[in-house]
Structures are given as structure tokens and as C-alpha cells.
Amino acid sequence: MQQELFIYNTLSRSKEKFEPITKGMVGLYVCGPTVYSDVHLGNCRTFISFDLIYRYLLHLGFKVRYVRNVTDAGHLEGDRDEGDDKFAKKAKLEQLEPMEIVQKYTVGFRDVMREFNALPPSIEPTATGHICEQIEMIKEIIEKGYAYEVNGTVYFDVEKYNKEFSYGQLTNRKLEELLEGTRELSGQDEKRGRLDFALWIQAKPETLMKWPSPWGWGFPGWHIECSAMSSKYLGETFDIHGGGMDLQATHHTNEIAQSQACNHKAPVNYWMHTNMLTVNGVRMSKSAGNGFLPGELFTGDHPLLEKGYSPMSVRFFMMQTHYRSTLDFSNEALQASEKGYARLMNAVKTLESLKTASTSTSNITELKQKCYEAMNDDFNAPILVANLFEGARIINSVNDGKETITVDDLQLLKTIMHDFVFDVLGLKAENANAAHDKALQGVMEVILEIRKEAKAKKDFATSDKLRDELAKNKITIKDTKDGVNWSIEE
RNA sequence: GGUCCUGUGGCCGAGCGGUUAGGCAGAGCUCUGCAAAAGCUCGUACAGCGGUUCAAAUCCGCUCGGGACCUCCA
User: Fold this and answer.
1) Where on the phi/psi map is residue A458: left (φ > 0), alpha (ψ -120 to 50), or beta?
2) Interatomic distance A409 CA / B10 C1' (Å)
3) In strand B, which positions have an atom below 7 A from any protein CB?
4) Of A120, A185, A198, A292, whose CB count within 10 A is highest?
5) Residue-wise pLDDT tens digits, A124-170
6) Beta carbon of A389 within 7 Å of strand B?
7) Residues of each domain in chain A carrying CATH 1.10.730
8) CB A177 under 7 Å to nucleic chain B
9) Which residues in 250-269 of chain A line strand B, with CB less than 7 A from it?
10) Domain A279-424: which topology?
11) Which residues in chain A show pLDDT less than 70?
12) What is the homologous superfamily of the domain A18-274 according to CATH?
């Protein structure tokens, strides 16, 4: 079943056959979070999308080195090449050391990813852990003549670079067009060109996070970390670089420029961009104020949410939309996914108790084929899901005795369902505790209501029996003047 | 202003030249003590107007919506 995998490449704006640099191996780099606040759901969507991609590559048998960085320094507020570092700013607000901020939100981010059942990357390098590499790279860019220093700050010379390379290739734009969209340089600007961006930024006296460099104390610009770390772990040219679409125009464009200036070759063969998550048609973002945290989503504790949704039903919700499409968020859509997810998981459970027959009424091999075709076509998870529902239909029909299946086909069906539902889509049976607790609560309410009615009718035989039988099951009932309490003995 | 993306049945969302996407909701039927679950059947959707074609949701043009990026964000 080794068909060809096709990937939509932002560089060419088309689906291309995927051919790794080294047979059987894939180098994958994804721009990770900036850990200066809680991740919101929009961030999660990107990482869950790439988790699907990572999982499918693994499923196909590739040895994948998946690098996802953690930006813990150098990400400025505003593109003024000045101002406070995000971490330092937040640190002042929270009265914490910058690295306390980093630690706090890094841990939070990993917890959330675990809840969504996202596999950890092979390497999660941090910007602060690779200051030397970044400095070395900046030095090299200066040596090659594509950067210049002004008062301890180093800028990338975009116009010079553009003379030999193509700066706007990722967004298919010409330099002149890009220039039109930028403001004029004022007399106070240190930059030579309007599009020039900082590689290294001079520290101010109050800057908390700073390192020594050939240009004095300072800190790295945002874009250089990804170039430095991706080339360190994946080589000067690697297979796939991914990230959210919002990074395409600036961050990734600058990454290409940095690496190309340094090595004189394209750093990445396939650029992949995931689309945004919207709420009521508007992009979820920090500035729009319509972003909610994963925790709020799980508990339902947010004005936009009617109720809580489990991590797996949210993950399933995301899997029903292609990664390159925007995904609009609504309670109705989420509830639909919740039910669909339950139906799929029920079918997988039913699979274990199916009876076999001498013939099959469904073509399981064809189903398998369709599943692979869907995923090989640029990771089309929605179509995969549709095929899995066809599998669910078959399972239920066999279970009802309306269809039959052979031993071999049943085995194949089990393989398909398990491989794709668990390994590829990354779904898992929900931790049953929450559901059980809720169910138990309901059961107890029913029992206590019956007991209350019995007591009202002075049917104490029944009421006492209920209390005694529950006690035998380690559930204690206490009548108080405010009503009935119950608890479970530990 | 510039560069793009997009408009699919009640909702979400695939498809992107000829074939039932799928899920949720709704209606009917089967099953069933009742209910649920499950299965079957059903709405015959592609913003509007033109054009290309034997054939268009799918290609082209125009009109009208929605959104993204160009400024920190996955």
C-alpha cells in the first residue's frame, strides 16, 4: 500500500509529490509557541494539524525528526525593533523572573498538548538555549554582506539580498509591492531599508534578558532563532517546514532570506501552512479578544461556550476540516462533533464483539484503499473521517446481522479502524472518569428521589433498604435538615 | 490602497469538469413492552448574472457578500 504522498507546497502553490531528501527519512520543523502567556485554541489547532501530519508520516514508516521550537526570548512587542521583550514585559507585570514566565507557560503548553493527545516532538529547542548558534549565523550573514550593524543592533539588508535572491517568493510578491505597504523611514531610524529587520537587538539598561555578543549586550531578533535551530538539527536544507499561515508573509519569508543569505541554498523543500481558527467568522486572536483557552473550552467556563467539550471531541472536530481551510467555531458544530465522535468510538468498541461468516458483504480492501488515498492527498482528514464512518456503518450492520464479514476481512477492518482512528487521527478513548462521575451523580439522584418518595409514604422498609444496600456498596447517605448528602467511602 | 483566499442543503464541512462525500439536526420505516441504540429511506444544496463545454458547484468574466496578510499573534 505504498502509494505516493502529495503535499501542498506554499512555494509552488500546488500539490507536489513528496520526495524526501534521504529515502525513508523526514526532517520536519514547525514554528512553536511563544511562551509568554497561555496558548489559546487557535495555536492548538496548528499544532494538532501538524500532529496529524507527523503521525501519518510515522504511520507510513518514515523515520521523522520533528523539531518544534519554543520561543522564549527575542520576540518583540510591535515591530519597532525597540521596546520591551515580551517576556520581560510580562515578567514585570507578574513580578516574576523572565525565565519563571517561560517555565510556567512552557509547562502549561505541554499539558494542553498532552490533553489533546499530541505526540511530543523529537526535539523542542529553545531560543535561549541557542544564543551561540544565532550569533554565529548572524556573523556569517554579515560576512556574506547581507547584514550591517548600527549602534549594537544588526539589521538584515533586504534590498541587497533581493538583488541576488527573491525576497518575496513565499507570498509571491515583488519587493516593490512590499515596499509600498511599509511606512517611510524617519530620520531617527537606524535601518537603511524600510523592509530591513533586526537580527540582533542592542540591550537597553533595563533589558532583563540579554547576552554578550560581538556587537555588545543584546538579544536575538525573532526570525533568526528558527533559521539557526532548524539548520542545526535538520541541516541546511531539509524536507518540511510548517507553521500557521500568519507566519508566512513575515516570519517565514525572513527565515528563507536568512538561511539563503548564509548558505546560498533554499533551506526548505516543502513549506506547509495551516489555516486559522475563527470564531463567528473572525480570526481567533489575542488582540481580537475572542480567543479562549483550552481549559475554558474543556470546562465550558466562557461566555461564548454553552457547555464544556472534551479534548477528544475538540480534536475530532478539528479533524473534520482540512488543515488548509479556516475552521469556524460554534457550539452547534462542536456538539455535532461530540456526537459523531461518540458514534465512531462506539463502533470501534463494537468491532471487538463481531461475529464472522463465510462471506463478506462489504469490500473492506477498498475501504482501506480509500483511507490511504484520502491521507495521501495532502492529508485530507475530512475524507478519511467520512471513510471511517463508512467503516462504522459496516460494523453496526454486521452487528445487527444485516451484513456479514469474513474472519480475514474482520481482521483487516480492525487494523484499518485502529490504525486510522488511534494512530493517525490521534483519537483515544476518553478518560471515562468524568463521564462515570456524571453518570453516578445521576444514578444517585434517581435513587434518592425514590427513597424520598418512599419516606413520604412512610414506606420505611424501602427507604431503609436503599440506604443499607448503598452502604454495602460503600456509599453513605446522611439525612440532614437541608436535604440528603451522600458520599463514597475511600 | 496592495497581495491573496473564500461564499456548498437547517448547522458544520469535503469535493474543484461527468459519479451518493461525511457528521449533526429533522421526517418516515424496521427493530423494540416503552424508550434508547442501530440499520434503511428522504430533502435533491452549491451567492447572483453571463460565458466556455456534449457536460460546471467545479473553468472564465462581471456583480454582491465574508475573511486573511501587508503591524505582535499558530
Assistant:
1) left
2) 38
3) 1-5, 10-15, 21-25, 37-40, 66-74
4) A198
5) 999 999 999 999 999 999 999 999 999 999 999 998 999 888 888 88
6) yes
7) 279-424
8) yes
9) 250-251
10) Isoleucyl-tRNA Synthetase; Domain 1 (1.10.730)
11) 1-2, 75-84, 181-188, 280-281, 286-289, 431-439, 480-483, 487, 489-490
12) HUPs (3.40.50.620)
Cell of A156: 538584515
Residue nearest to nucleotide B22 (CA to C1'): A386
Q: Determine the distance between A344 (CA) and B21 (C1') in angstroms.
A: 17
What pLDDT does A60 receive? Answer: 96
| pLDDT tens by residue, A318-368 | 999 999 998 888 888 899 999 999 999 999 989 988 889 999 999 999 999
Where do you find CATH 3.40.50.620 in chain A? Answer: 18-274
Asked whether strand B has any atom less than 7 Å from the CB of A320, the reply is: yes
Q: ipTM value of the model?
A: 0.92
Asked whether residue A373's C-beta has any atom of DNA/RNA strand B within 7 A, the reply is no
Give the type of residue at A379.
Answer: F
